[in-house]
Automatic annotation (TrEMBL):
<feature type="binding site">
    <location>
        <position position="214"/>
    </location>
    <ligand>
        <name>substrate</name>
    </ligand>
</feature>
<feature type="domain" description="NAD-dependent epimerase/dehydratase">
    <location>
        <begin position="19"/>
        <end position="249"/>
    </location>
</feature>
<feature type="binding site">
    <location>
        <begin position="175"/>
        <end position="178"/>
    </location>
    <ligand>
        <name>NADP(+)</name>
    </ligand>
</feature>
<feature type="binding site">
    <location>
        <position position="152"/>
    </location>
    <ligand>
        <name>NADP(+)</name>
    </ligand>
</feature>
<feature type="binding site">
    <location>
        <position position="191"/>
    </location>
    <ligand>
        <name>NADP(+)</name>
    </ligand>
</feature>
<dbReference type="InterPro" id="IPR001509">
    <property type="entry name" value="Epimerase_deHydtase"/>
</dbReference>
<dbReference type="GO" id="GO:0050577">
    <property type="term" value="F:GDP-L-fucose synthase activity"/>
</dbReference>
<dbReference type="GO" id="GO:0070401">
    <property type="term" value="F:NADP+ binding"/>
</dbReference>
<dbReference type="InterPro" id="IPR036291">
    <property type="entry name" value="NAD(P)-bd_dom_sf"/>
</dbReference>
<dbReference type="InterPro" id="IPR028614">
    <property type="entry name" value="GDP_fucose/colitose_synth"/>
</dbReference>
<keyword id="KW-0560">Oxidoreductase</keyword>
<keyword id="KW-0413">Isomerase</keyword>
<feature type="binding site">
    <location>
        <position position="281"/>
    </location>
    <ligand>
        <name>substrate</name>
    </ligand>
</feature>
<keyword id="KW-0521">NADP</keyword>
<dbReference type="Pfam" id="PF01370">
    <property type="entry name" value="Epimerase"/>
</dbReference>
<dbReference type="GO" id="GO:0042351">
    <property type="term" value="P:'de novo' GDP-L-fucose biosynthetic process"/>
</dbReference>
<feature type="site" description="Important for catalytic activity">
    <location>
        <position position="121"/>
    </location>
</feature>
């Protein structure tokens, strides 16, 4: 039998079982750190080797046994602009299956509070900036990540449908470009910030006279540290309820050229930078309107300069053990 829960703002129960899907990734690992620091005692995670979220029977069985009270769905197949445009089938199929399995399984055990995470690429390519939540489904998607975006839009609809059909107070949040520890730093698969950190750091180590970045350098992107994102997630779970997705960002953006210059200076690179315009630029600007989040009581706390320094330090500590795809 399905029981509808009413939402009332306030602290989640620190003793309840809290499942973080994707607990080793950039966002999931930050959420685990945040939950630990907030005093949660029963945080559960499974690696993909332990539980393949694309396997429906395995996921349903896992949930039936664990019966988590809270869930964050931070597991997804993610990647930068080249990975997304080269392997669209994987991004569509894997993400739809992961979402449908985790959301169906959560519904079967009446998860009381669930946060579904997507990405700012769900919005139309030429959405008015900064992008408001209401822009969803008002225009064509950016082709380099349309498959991923459609999967994530399906997830938002799934959460809204569960709310409508079963009355469970689940919510969705759409982060801007995130960065931080446990990110993917592989040159072919990563997003721009880890790619730049690695490229410039390797150039310093090798004494290279120039590096080549992708695209024109003119697109604008907004960056948020994963620890800020995790803090926002817990805040939303404890204080926000509503069917529509909530944007999570820092509220300011920079050009790719500017962020490249900043990374170069943080790692100590003094050589030349060239731009390979045969590589795609993607959408010209992606800056989220974060006023809904501010109304819900949360704003970003980690400045980009501090977040970058921390991420470069983490990268240097983990050079030998980074994932390679
Ligand atoms: P997007 O935000 O979905 O477009 O994804 P990315 O983070 O992969 O790319 C953001 C922007 O950075 C695009 O304009 C890329 O062309 C540019 N960029 C410059 N150099 C790189 C690089 O080495 N890797 C990636 N992924 N993007 C780069």
């Amino acid at each position: 039998m399905t029981v509808a829960h009413d939402f009332s703002p306030g602290e989640l129960n620190r003793e309840a079982t809290f499942y973080v899907a994707g607990h080793r990734g950039l966002v999931g690992s930050a959420i685990v750190r945040r939950l630990e620091s907030a005093g949660f005692e029963n945080i559960v995670g499974r690696t993909s080797a332990e539980l393949d979220l694309k396997n429906r029977d395995a996921v349903l069985g896992f949930f039936a046994e664990l019966k988590p009270r809270y869930v964050v769905l931070a597991a997804a197949k993610v990647g930068g602009i080249m990975a997304n445009s080269t392997y669209p089938v994987d991004f569509l199929s894997d993400n739809i299956r992961i979402q449908v399995n985790v959301l169906d399984a959560s519904r079967q055990v009446d998860v009381e509070r669930l946060l579904f995470l997507g990405s700012s690429c769900i919005y139309p390519k030429f959405a008015e900036q900064p992008i408001r939540e209401e822009s969803l489904l008002t225009g064509h998607l950016e082709p380099t990540n349309d498959a991923y975006a459609i999967a994530k839009i399906a997830g938002i609809l799934h959460v809204q449908s569960v709310r409508r059909q079963y009355g469970l107070p689940w919510i969705s949040a759409m982060p801007t470009n995130l960065y931080g520890p446990n990110d993917n730093f592989s040159p072919a698969g990563s997003h721009v910030l880890p790619a730049l950190i690695r490229r410039y750091d390797e150039a310093v180590a090798s004494g290279a006279a120039s590096v080549v970045n992708w695209g024109s350098g003119s697109p604008r992107r907004e960056f948020l540290h994963a620890d800020d994102m995790a803090d926002a997630c817990l805040h939303l779970l404890e204080h926000f309820d509503g069917p529509d997705q909530v944007n999570v960002g820092s509220g300011t953006d920079v050009t790719i050229r500017e962020i490249a210059e900043t990374v170069a200076s943080v790692v100590g690179y003094t050589g030349e930078t060239e731009w390979d315009t045969t590589k795609p630029d993607g959408t010209p600007q992606k800056l989220l309107d974060v006023s809904k989040l501010a109304r819900a009581g949360w704003t970003s706390k980690i400045p980009l300069s501090e977040g970058l320094e921390r991420t470069v330090a983490w990268y240097r500590d983990h050079i030998g053990s980074l994932r390679e795809k």
